[in-house]
Amino acid sequence: MRRMIPIVLTVITLLIRVEPVSAQNYPWCQQRGDGATNCGFVTYEQCMAKGSLCYRNPMYQPPTGALQPHRGMRRTRG
């Protein structure tokens, strides 16, 4: 019986579904007065509403498949 316990625990551990944990990934950060940083803001305005020193998150990675702003000439009808 004692030999079965580690085997059962191993099987249960292997059957548990584990998914990777992703860090919060938002484009705006805030430097707080106590030196702490909070990079949990979606917009600049949202960040500014909570404090006064906001900057772009240098580690921000847009989600896969997200639409990127077009950086070319705009077509105009005419």
State Rg. 23 Å
- The number of strands is 3
Strand residue content: 15-25%
Order of helices and strands: HEEHE
Give the % helix.
Answer: 10-25%
Structural class: alpha+beta
Query: Number of helix segments?
Result: 2
Biggest β-sheet: strands ordered side by side in the sheet: 2-1-3
Distance between the termini: 84 Å
What spatial form do the alpha-carbon principal axes imply? elongated
| Model regions low in confidence, pLDDT < 50 over at least 5 residues | none
Largest sheet: 3 strands, antiparallel
Q: Report mean pLDDT, rounded to a whole number.
A: 78
Task: Tell me the layout of helices and strands.
Blueprint: H1 4-15, E1 28-31, E2 37-41, H2 44-50, E3 54-56
Antiparallel strand pairs: 1-2, 1-3
In short:
By secondary structure, the chain is α+β, with helices and mostly antiparallel strands. It contains two helices and three strands; from the N terminus they run H-E-E-H-E. The chain is elongated.
Give your account of this protein's structure.
The protein is an alpha+beta fold and 78 residues long. It has a domain at 22-60. It is built from 2 helices and 3 strands, in the order H-E-E-H-E. It has helices at residues 4-15, 44-50; strands spanning 28-31, 37-41, 54-56. Strands 2-1-3 form a 3-stranded antiparallel beta sheet. Strand 1 (28-31) and strand 2 (37-41) form a beta hairpin. The protein is elongated and about 70 Å long. The N and C termini lie far apart (84 Å). The mean pLDDT is 78.
